[in-house]
Design a protein that fits this description.
CATH architecture of the largest domain: 3-Layer(aba) Sandwich
CATH class of the largest domain: Alpha Beta
Shape: elongated
CATH topology of the largest domain: Trna Endonuclease, Chain: A, domain 1
Distance between the termini: 23 Å
Helix content: 25-40%
Oligomer: single chain
Largest sheet: 6 strands, mixed
Strand order of the largest sheet: 15-18-19-20-21-22
Amino acid sequence: MENERQDLYRSPEIERFLADVIVKKPEIVPVFDLELGYRYLDVEEGLKKKPEESREFLERLANVGILERRLHVMGLRCPKCDGSNVDTRYVCPFCGSIDVKKDALIEHVACGYIDVMTNFKRDGDYICPKCRNKLEPGSYRSAGSWYGCVSCGKRVEFPTPQHKCRRCEIVFNLDGAIYERVYTYSLSKIAKDEIGHGILLRSVIRERAATVGYDIKAPYSVKGDSGVEHTFDMLLLKQDEKTAVDVILSDGPISQIEIIKEYTKVIDTKEILYLIVIPELGDDARKLVEFYKMRVIESVSPQGALEALIEELKSGKRVTEGKPIKVVVEAAKKREEKGGLVSGLKGALNFRSLLKRRK
């Protein structure tokens, strides 16, 4: 499940959903439509999806742990036409008539007689049919409700619920209905942690690189000399210049295993790669980077890594092979104070603090 989730994070559509839709609407709540049933308008409008596509999209994210479900309502639909425009009525269980009348039951406390209120009424007063005494305030109490069928005259304790589709007009009960769970969706704790560590950085890199003249292809897959297809987070294109970018995010120092994986991709594809690591390289990983002469941008913050990459792209220079750029969080803060971060960057990368406030 974790691998599936990481693959989905690479999707531009899902990154857009996380960076735009879920920030504005931390809880995706369904809205009822008489013709189409429950719809997720935030997803439909934000991602330009049809109602069914929106439901499938949210379920897909929930199945891999990016979203969590909360039961919102049990939806009822017609078993014949699948319509949601359904009328609910209550009928007599004996004759099926909808002409069922509700009456209040009262108990005469003095003699214990219980009957519907209408049977106590005599010549403008309320008289007990059993003891013939007049009902005074405090001498009787409510005993619930009772129902009578006007058509067949029988009394029933509970009328039978029945449904009728307003579209195709068939009548059905709960056993025949399409009765399904409808959910509200919100970001899971797992996704909050992962996004808080900078997973949205990839989408912001694409946005910022485009402002300095680069076309972006993300994700980018290429077949190596071995015949194996390798995937990079993105490819930055500018005239004849081609640069691959991968982002590795972790709670702690990046391991040597991750560096070996990246180096294997570079050797097999011959791609020029900028590797962004957050928060830092482990000691063994750093030795491998220097030995393999890899281009690495190392930062404790997504902001710092982004600014370092953009500065390199703008200058046209390459990170010195085997000499990782070390970016500290203080430097990133100074750049932000000077207005070096665009509003889109603030919106996406400040998502981490938004998540903390919502926890």
